[in-house]
Amino acid sequence: MISLSEIDTTVKRATKAIGFSWGIAEEVGKSISLLEMFGLPGLKNLNQYFKLYKDKKFQNVSLISKINSSKISYCPIISGINFLDQVFTLNEMNEIDFENVAFPILLIPFLSKSSEIIGKKIFLKIDQRKYLLNFNHSIFSNHLDTDVIDKATKVKIIFIENENTFSQNEWSELYTLSKETFVDESEELKQTAAGAGLTDND
Amino acid sequence: MEVQLRDPKIVMKLSKLGSFHQSKLSFLRSFLKEFKDWKYKRDLFELDENGHGRAVYSLSKNSRTYSLVCFANHIKDDERSDRVIATKWDTAFTLHDGVPTKKDLDRLFNDVPKQEVGRLSYKELTLSRANKSLRIFNHVVESLSEGRQPDKNKLFEVGYLYRTTAVYGSGKFGLADRFRIKNRDEICGPFRLEMMLVYLVREFTFDQVNHIARQKNPRKAVSLDKNICRNLGIGNSTGLGMAPFIVNHPTLLNNWILAREISLKKIREIEKVKDNEFELFKKNLIKSQKNITSWNTDSEFQKKKIFGLLKDMEKLINFINDDFNFKGKYSFNELYLWCEKNLKDECIEYIVSLMMEPYDDITNPLVKKMSADEEKHFNIPTQKNIENLRNILENNYSEIIKIDFSKKENNQNYWFISKNKEEPRLADRYLDYGSELEQPLAIARDIKILHERISNKKNSLSIGKFLMENNDLRHVVRRAFISENFPYSEIQDNTIGSKLMPIDMLRLKLSFFGAVKFDPRSDKWLRICMFQGAPLLNDLKSIDDGWIYNSLN
């Protein structure tokens, strides 16, 4: 088995070899090993992307807007890096749409890191495939195939506000149950068990 | 009294870093202390009459076991090479996580001797190989088989029976990634598993010579004297492969140096140095004088350093005996200041290491802080602005940005990865081809370019926006922000200049390993010795931490 460390190093070098800067190559090395750690097919997608990269033109998005559309497929690496770099301003837009992204799986690690930086979960929809990116700790998805996805027509990214997944009522019910581990104090215990003084006039 | 940490712009100069020596913080010493109460066992020893075959040694505690798997092979004399281009070695080793099964051993038998072209699994932690010091090895076998101990002078001139030529870890060639094991308490210090491998290899080398001697002459052979064993370590040949490591791991480098600097600061802040503390310092100083005379080298560069070190030590001892009163307040601070004024770096840094010896209470907690979670500091804080970046560059790299890179001599070299061995190399930009494939290790030059690039940018421009057009400098933007929080993360020198001594970079790393007897064979590689004087595995329980000064030379 190839270790994550080997993936990081080799991907970094390959990314530089294909024409990206060393700084971007460092990011891509870490990103692909992150994808592989999460069990997503990062290396396979990157390899296919690089096979096309030299001969085909890809769109480099600089300043990301709420809606980003291009006839030429967006480069997932430059899009991902710029998303990461601009995440504080993008967060204020709540939802961001991309149309026509090449090898969109490669966007995921940059969004996953962004989720950690901004402290919010990020919902990602790549055509019909859904991903929930949880602070760069885990990725929840309805899509477990390890195939190469060479293109996405629509990519939607939503910053999810920090809200509970349960209702107040559900919380109260569980809280009430948890209280059954507590001891009902006698009057005497109320006076003495906390250990504090009985008067605070000293 | 509060003493300031030493200025990174002085400490992080390569000539200073290249003068560092082993100390209580060194990884091999902290490894021995951590594992002193682990149970040692020789689980397997299947060698033929020539010492070829396999062996397994283990260290265990509670439910954890680490096993060294050794393969000793026959190679022809003309196949024996310390260079990384070698393809065969006298011995090959791996440290296995747990107890290897028969199936594991068979798998390892096929792959471990192949080293870089073999494949290991997540169950293996480190990988290494070693060659005999043929002259010494044969002399020892010959002597023991004839019923006598070998000539000590001959032995200690070299200091080991075997030298390793590489020790790999952290995911290389399929080995376990660091993340799998990083939460284990016993390996919280850097390079613990590499140290464990080398230490266990040392034990194997003694067992092997004893075995061969016995096979050769069963009636007459004697075992190698334990005191002689203790005074033999494991050699190591190290080339440029190690140098980029300290550039590529800025937070880790910071944590190593910071631990040393905090130790020194705390020692200088001790108001009253106790008699026994000063006595220990002085005792080790005197012993060191003797030890240092056994550091043999043909390198004029190193000979000069050793000569200067001995001369300065004598100067210091005279000062201590004639003019110094350690009973005064802050006496280690006084002594340090005297050293700074009167001695050269090589000796100053030796004394810094010696000053730590009496103070386990200062050094032990710092040992635990010498690892780094590098991923945590990888992201660039893109919400910050150019003013923040400019301040960092002008404060933390003030000397670097003065270097004139239009001068040929400041731009002389470039670092590249060799296609043949996938190892870092250094070449002359103006004589050799390949500089277009330069590795990103010219940090000083790129920082200077970054400083120039931001000179006409608005202070309020965010780093995120700056990077949109300047991703070619992304690698140094990242480093600059790391240096903001990690003052000792950056070498304050030009790593591509004509005056670069790459062995300074190697020496820095090796000193933290705990290596001694630096013997440069050129400005790009050197030999060293590890664990010479260290307790044997069976004596580890009663380890005396000052073993490194107890040479029997």
Describe how the helices and strands are arranged.
The complex is a heterodimer of chains A (202) and B (553).
Chain A: H1 4-18, H2 22-37, H3 42-53, E1 67-74, H4 76-85, H5 87-90, E2 95-102, H6 108-118, E3 121-126, E4 129-134, E5 138-141, E6 151-160, H7 168-178, H8 187-192
Parallel strand pairs in A: 1-2
Antiparallel strand pairs in A: 2-6, 3-4, 3-6, 4-5
Helix pairs in contact in A: 1-2, 4-6
Chain B: H1 8-11, H2 14-17, H3 27-34, E1 39-47, E2 53-61, E3 64-72, E4 91-97, H4 102-111, E5 124-132, H5 134-145, H6 152-158, E6 160-168, H7 192-216, H8 226-230, E7 233-238, H9 243-248, H10 250-268, H11 275-292, H12 300-322, H13 331-342, H14 345-356, H15 360-367, H16 386-396, E8 413-417, E9 424-428, H17 443-453, H18 463-469, H19 474-485, H20 502-513, E10 516-520, E11 526-530
Parallel strand pairs in B: 6-7
Antiparallel strand pairs in B: 1-2, 2-3, 3-4, 4-5, 5-6, 7-11, 8-9, 10-11
Describe the structure.
The complex is a heterodimer of chains A (202) and B (553). The longest helix of chain A is centred in the N-terminal third of the chain and has 16 residues, at 22-37. The N and C termini of chain A lie far apart (69 Å). In chain A, a hairpin with a 3-residue loop joins strand 4 and strand 5. By secondary structure, chain A is α+β, with helices and mostly antiparallel strands. The model of chain A has no long low-confidence stretch (mean pLDDT 93). Chain A contains 8 helices and 6 strands; from the N terminus they run αααβααβαββββαα. Chain A has a 6-stranded mixed sheet, with helices on one face. Chain A has one domain (4-160). Chain A has helices at 4-18, 22-37, 42-53, 76-85, 87-90, 108-118, 168-178, 187-192; strands spanning 67-74, 95-102, 121-126, 129-134, 138-141, 151-160. With 553 residues, chain B is of the alpha+beta class. Among the domains of chain B are: 35-239, no CATH class; 374-485, no CATH class. Chain B contains 20 helices and 11 strands. Chain B has helices spanning 8-11, 14-17, 27-34, 102-111, 134-145, 152-158, 192-216, 226-230, 243-248, 250-268, 275-292, 300-322, 331-342, 345-356, 360-367, 386-396, 443-453, 463-469, 474-485, 502-513, and strands spanning 39-47, 53-61, 64-72, 91-97, 124-132, 160-168, 233-238, 413-417, 424-428, 516-520, 526-530. In chain B, the strands form 2 sheets. In chain B, strands 1-2-3-4-5-6-7-11-10 form a 9-stranded mixed sheet, sandwiched between helices. In chain B, strands 8-9 form a two-stranded antiparallel ribbon. In chain B, a hairpin with a 6-residue loop joins strand 8 (413-417) and strand 9 (424-428). The longest helix of chain B has 25 residues, at 192-216. Chain B starts with 7 loop residues before the first helix and ends in a 23-residue tail after the last strand. Chain A binds chain B through residues 1-6, 13, 20-24, 26-27, 30, 62-63, 81-82, 84-89, 113, 117, and chain B through 121-122, 170-179, 375, 378-380, 382-383, 417, 440, 463-465, 467-469, 471-478.
